[in-house]
Recover the amino acids of this structure.
C-alpha cells in the first residue's frame, strides 16, 4: 500500500535529499537492502510528479532516514532545494540485480572467477555498468562495452579503469 508523504528538499553537493522519520518508514515494512560499506538501506518505489523510480532509503540523522531524488525528476517538476514536495513510497520487493548482456552472462558461466569478481561490486555499481552498456544504440557497441568491463574484471578485479603512472 503506497504511503503519501510530504518533505522539504535540501541540497548536499549536487544531490537533493529529504529526511523522513524512521517510525513512519518502519510502518511501510520496506525490504532491507545492502549498501556499500556493509550498512543497510531500505528499497522502495518512489512515485513523484507522475514518475516512478526505484530508490534506496539510507540511514540519516538520528531518528531519520534520508532519500535522494534524481535531479532530472526535480527539474521536470520545477522544484529544488528548499521546496516542499509530495510523493509516495511503497515496498520494492523485486530484485535489483540487472539483466546482463548476453556476452557477460556467457563469460560468467564459462569463467566463474569473473562472476565472483562481478558479484563483489555493489548492486548499484553493477546496475550502473549494465545501464551504460545498454545505452549504446547498436548491438556491436554494446558488446564492445561489455568486453571492456569483462577485461577490467579479468585484469584487476575492478570495474573502474585503473590509472597508470
Amino acid at each position: 500500500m503506497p504511503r503519501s508523504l510530504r518533505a522539504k528538499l535540501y541540497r548536499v553537493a549536487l544531490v537533493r535529499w529529504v529526511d523522513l522519520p524512521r517510525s513512519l518508514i518502519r510502518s511501510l515494512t520496506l525490504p532491507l537492502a545492502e549498501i556499500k560499506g556493509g550498512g543497510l538501506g531500505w528499497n522502495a518505489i518512489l512515485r513523484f510528479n507522475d514518475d516512478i523510480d526505484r530508490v534506496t532509503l539510507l540511514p540519516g540523522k538520528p531518528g531519520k532516514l534520508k532519500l535522494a531524488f534524481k535531479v532530472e525528476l526535480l527539474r521536470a517538476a520545477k522544484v529544488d532545494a528548499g521546496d516542499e514536495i509530495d510523493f509516495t513510497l511503497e515496498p520494492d520487493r523485486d530484485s535489483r540485480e540487472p539483466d546482463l548482456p548476453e556476452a557477460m552472462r556467457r563469460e560468467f558461466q564459462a569463467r566463474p572467477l569473473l562472476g565472483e569478481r562481478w558479484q563483489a561490486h555493489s548492486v548499484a555499481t553493477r546496475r550502473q555498468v549494465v545501464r551504460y552498456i545498454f545505452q549504446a544504440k547498436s548491438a556491436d557497441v554494446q558488446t564492445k562495452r561489455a568486453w571492456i568491463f569483462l577485461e577490467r574484471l579479468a585484469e584487476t578485479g575492478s570495474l573502474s579503469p585503473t590509472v597508470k603512472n
User: Anything to note?
Assistant: The first strand starts at residue 3 and ends at 8.
